User: Which sequence fits this backbone?
């Protein structure tokens, strides 16, 4: 079958099957997307069983936990067919295109081949919103910085500072776009600006979730990219979040958990990274803080590397060059408070920005931003002309 | 030579040689204390070289760093002889006895045989002030809880709580009696009361150092014991502190570093414990806290086990029984604030105590103690009769 047919078959699968539909993933991997789709349309459970063999996994998201392989296949065929009856692939693609959403499949030059390490669990395709190339050319590595939604100010500061340090060294920062640690990681990377930050979402890219992060996600979309294996119109659900975590783990060479409670979802991302033989690292915190209990557990029980900041993480990236990109501006930063530094970091090296845009990136009020810009201008670090803010040097 | 002669020879060595005098330790180990003393009195450097062989270590505390073995022996013989001329062993022992200071040597039933693991570095003898038996019979294990003098309130709380939890499980808590983490560890163990806490000091036991901890050290002396390899009249010096650390590491089955800066003396105790193949553990803290940097370094670079509290430490003690001693009173403690719990913990299970004594142990003002006792009495946890305070139950 042609590459175009394979592409359409994969897109159809992403419209028909849950990300966590292990039977669909198995069928696609065993037969190829197109042949698997024919099976979905026409085969009987008996024929499917013959083609796929007896070890049919359950789908925790959808099946009733049937233990009999043939029964599981009947359930799978049933759920696929009911969806196939209603799915209109060309219409879906047209709507996605109107929303600026691209689709990538294996073989596309922009396909992040790191996802192939997931093997049978690799997504059928990837929906992309934004200009950034998800295979991240020109970056010196990629790190997932993840953690609890219920984060502490301490955790958010560490996540932001670590991500800014990594991005300033040309490392792409990947996270889940959620509240708390994820948002702090994206903001830190946006502030440093030197490398892309990607948000991998659990739902469709036509509705940015969580709503409270809409402006942050829009900024990531405008400057870099949002990714999802779920087609537009898909609501994020618990199972889709858990399935999404494997993509974050696969896209990154190192997964850093900054804060996680004893049973945080971030631990599942660490587990997936472990499964992929990726390096897992965790940031310690006060033993009195429940938000750090999961990190301490990872270090104590699951061999995660203890990291205290961006430099520790860089040591875990064989490819990374600790000195690249650090350079000039860093020196003058020592003049300013950490808060003002964040603002200065958020001013692009070569282009102009605005106070409002900085407010989104740094997550401060425009008034606070103006005050910081005043101090920065006083020390000759930025030039302000009307609404336009530029770096005075570089 | 008789056991009594060996005892006197060892005591003489502790009066003549620095704890860190590696040549003295070597001679004693190679020839026995008595014969080594004869060598110190009469041998020429040439004869000594013949008896001890060519690998004569330097003494960082005293020698000029002579690299030639014969020269080192000349220096050693010179420093020993000048001291031997002035030392009056019977007078020293009589004075120690007046101060209530005992001397223990290997072979004594109370000698802590754990020190023998130090081999050539084992102390000549041990000076003991207090009733506690340094070989800690009846305890379920021993843990060294050490850390920076420049500690944070966080570190002191963790050290105190961890030590109280360990002592309440019958684990002896060993530390150095210094300001900061050491003091918090001793206080926590005293508060739990169920197991001894020993302070190993770097100077002579006739002058309790640091002065600011005098009342705490007196309490440890009265309830348990103070130990030192240095005879009465010895001032604590940097080298004696470093030498002392090996005793703490050897006496404990596990060494826990609660807080340590990047170059803290507590790291040397961890190193000694490592050398002895003892388990080293460290407590994490905020990565933003310099007081935790050494602990993070131990975990990240030197394989220390991350521990978050007493239960984690208990898991590192094969002999320990996590449930023993916990029991009854614990339940009612949930009624009270942590501060009040510390006070209740400090009230002996079966005997009476006083407000002033509690003030020392818990390190609060008598006024704070009275307020806490009022609340505890209100809930029927303690009975107060005049100055006498008792547990209402048990």
Assistant:
């Amino acid at each position: 079958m042609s590459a175009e047919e394979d592409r359409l078959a994969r897109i159809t699968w992403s419209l028909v099957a849950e990300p966590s539909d292990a039977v669909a993933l198995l069928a696609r991997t065993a037969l190829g997307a197109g042949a698997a789709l024919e099976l979905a349309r026409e085969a009987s459970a008996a024929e499917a069983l013959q083609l796929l063999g007896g070890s049919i996994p359950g789908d925790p998201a959808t099946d009733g936990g049937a233990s009999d392989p043939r029964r599981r296949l009947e359930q799978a065929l049933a759920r696929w067919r009911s969806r196939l009856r209603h799915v209109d692939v060309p219409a879906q693609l047209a709507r996605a295109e109107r929303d600026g959403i691209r689709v990538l499949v294996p073989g596309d030059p922009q396909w992040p081949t790191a996802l192939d390490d997931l093997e049978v669990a690799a997504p059928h395709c990837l929906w992309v919103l934004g200009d950034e190339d998800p295979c991240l050319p020109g970056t010196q590595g990629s790190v997932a910085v993840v953690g609890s939604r219920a984060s502490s100010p301490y955790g958010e500061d560490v996540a932001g500072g670590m991500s800014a340090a990594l991005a300033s060294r040309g490392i792409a920062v990947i996270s889940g776009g959620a509240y708390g640690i994820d948002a702090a990681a994206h903001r830190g990377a946006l502030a440093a600006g030197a490398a892309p930050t990607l948000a991998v979402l659990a739902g469709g890219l036509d509705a940015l979730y969580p709503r409270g992060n809409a402006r942050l996600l829009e900024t990531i979309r405008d400057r870099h990219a949002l990714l999802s294996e779920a087609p537009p119109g898909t609501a994020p659900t618990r199972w889709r979040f858990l399935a999404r975590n494997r993509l974050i783990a696969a896209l990154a060479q190192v997964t850093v958990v900054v804060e996680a409670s004893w049973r945080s979802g971030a631990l599942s991302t660490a587990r997936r990274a472990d499964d992929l033989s990726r390096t897992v690292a965790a940031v310690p915190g006060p033993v009195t803080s429940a938000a750090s209990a999961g990190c301490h557990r990872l270090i104590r029980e699951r061999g995660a590397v203890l990291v205290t900041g961006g430099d520790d993480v860089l040591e875990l990236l064989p490819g990374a060059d600790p000195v690249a990109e650090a350079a000039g501006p860093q020196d003058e930063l020592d003049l300013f408070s950490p808060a003002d530094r964040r603002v200065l970091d958020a001013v692009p090296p070569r282009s102009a920005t605005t106070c409002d845009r900085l407010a989104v990136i740094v997550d401060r009020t425009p008034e606070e931003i103006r005050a910081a810009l005043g101090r920065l201008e006083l020390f000759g670090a930025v030039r302000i002309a009307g609404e336009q803010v530029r770096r005075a040097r570089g």
In short: Chain B touches chain A through 20 residues (CB under 8 Å). Chain B has a mean pLDDT of 89. The first strand of chain B starts at residue 101 and ends at 104.
